[in-house]
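PT: before anyone asks, these are the final sequences, not the draft ones from last week. 749 residues across everything. Please model them as a single complex and drop the result in this thread when it's through.
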Amino acid sequence: MPDQDVTGYKCRSCSTVAYPQHALCPTCGHDGFDPVSITGEGSVLTYTDLYALTLAYTQRYLRLAIVQLDSGLRATGHLLDPDPQLGKRIRTQIGVVREVDGRKIYGLQFVPV
Amino acid sequence: MRPVAILGVGMTKFGRSDLTLAGLMSEASVAALRDAKLGNRSVDAVVVANMGAARVNRQTAIASALVDRLNLFPAAAETVENGPASGASAVKVGVQAIAAGMADVVLVTGVERMRAVNNLEATDFVASLSHPEAEYVYGVTLPSLAGMFARLYMSRYGLTRRHLALVSIKNHNNAMRNPYAHIHQAITMEGILDAPEARVNNPPIAEPLHLYDCCPVSDGAASLVLASLDVAQQLNRPAVTIAGIGQATDTHAVQERSDPTELSAVRLAADQAFERAGLGPKEIDVAELHDAFTILEIAESEAAGFFPRGEGHLALEQGVTSLGGTLPINPSGGLKGRGHPVGATGVAQMVELTWQLRGEAGTRQVPDARNGFACNFGGFGNNVVATVLRSERRENA
Amino acid sequence: MASSDALEALLRPPAMDMPPYPPKAITLASGETMVVRQVARDEIPTLLKAISPLLQVERDFYDIVSARLYGELLAYKRYRVRDEYCLAGLIDGELAGIVNGRLVDAKVGMSYHTLTLRRGLRVGSHLFAAKMEYHIDILGQEEVLIVAESPIGFRRWMIEYPLDKKHEIQHELGGVPSWVLTVETYQKAKPRLCAGSRPVPAELLEAARIIRAPEEQKLTERVTGQDEAADHNNQGGAG
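LR: through. Structure below.
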């Protein structure tokens, strides 16, 4: 199993988790954070099938989504669902989302629950 | 703060150019300088708007290069980069210099020479404005952000692909009347949506957005010569003024927007521009909005205050925003038809509005246009500059 | 006309029986209709004249595609290529694009070129699909060997259909490693990529009966200046 993780930042002062990273806590302004994994279940907020891909990809299209996690955070990632729908329940997993010079980049994938 | 007037305007034809970056900048600048008829007055500062020269053209500090090309030394000069809103940001920098009394005459030139690289490279370059860890690494491009926005907007407010197609058809038709436009090709609803062949003519790019919902990749440059209003009056020129300019930002990653269908940076920037201009959306006669994607023209028209939220597509359907309607939007053809050399667009919007407010817009002319509005949309809506232009023509001029 | 000269017969390749391509009509984004039909040998001089100006246009590989296509069309006219065909797209009788290829044998096709004269309307996409339709649906072939001269052609055909690698075979266009379109892939891609209606109404067919070359100045300007919306370059080169 890949050990890469997608990290959110939990404020040491007010415990709010921010993702992606901000230098100061968006809620209370504090500047100390503990990393936390972005995982869990949620639902599809919106998605698209992207055909005009950048040089990094040779597949015909990429299914991208923004999901609303039950934790309150939102995340962007690859939607691995042949039948996508707005509001459909998903859970997160980590997988290869891009390759740069042969190096695999891991990130968030969403699969139907 | 001193009022700022637009003395001269100029632009190159947008599209595919054999000129170098410097050649494009110079052509537009010289056209604007000639239009301004400065006589003995010198240009105090040059501001260049550009997004990609460092990467796509391997050139930096291009404002200094433009000063040299035009022999304007020792004028002050800098390059402004604000993604797709670079153009209006550069105008804002020029306006600030004049308003503060630090310059009397400023040349603002926006330029992009995108076609120096192939389209895959150009797509990747524009995608670099997205959030590096939360978006870019997933293969997110600007069209994908627009596609996700469009899907949500359409499901919430009931607009359909037909409405998006109406924007495209309108802007293509308008561009036919614009000799500077990139695209001179009329299109029909049958050809892009209704006929079975439409699936080949108009393939998906980032669903629900298709080819004809997305602006082209263009080369081009556009320029304004700005001056304090009293310089304009000394030169006895009927002036178009920049009555108000506003700017606002929003979260970088689209997922962090509090309401992902709201273009709050458009709303705040527009509110600020209107407040500074001392007028409101109802007094605008003509608008140039940032239709990099057809959905954005509709969404911006609402966020800027021209139509209630979720009703912009109804106004479009009724012909309100067509040439001949009560609020023509993108008479130039917009980004869709005129083209989108990224750094030049914000300036080109104001070139068009100036022609409109002077009565020099030819067959695109909006009758009796007095007040104009431009929206230059940076990032995916996380940095927006809005501008109100006003004609200072006397009633019987 | 076929020569009864024995030497000429020796110099000609053998010829397979090729059912003709049934013409079709395609509605373009502009609302105009393009008729796609087969080109006869006696029409080749018009095509050669039409593409001559493009031999000097370096942009988007027009020069190499035109030059190679010119030779192929001339060879077709003079009976020096085996089982070659040529299809043309015509808008109001004016040449909008040309595609060609040949049959290696009953089962295998060799796609040659796609040349677009009227840009910005996906003419190249429509014509490339029409020739794949010819190879597979009309001529009953099982696979077509394809290469691309331009990077955008690569994306348009190799990635879009998608094509499979058959790199052990050198393509006739310069020995470049071949890609292949199989029947299976074609049938899956057809609903997405192949369009048009038959039969072509009589008045449209009549308007397409005599091929007209575009005016030279306008052609060169259009080919070098006019671009398609968004991205894809319509002129895909070999394929």
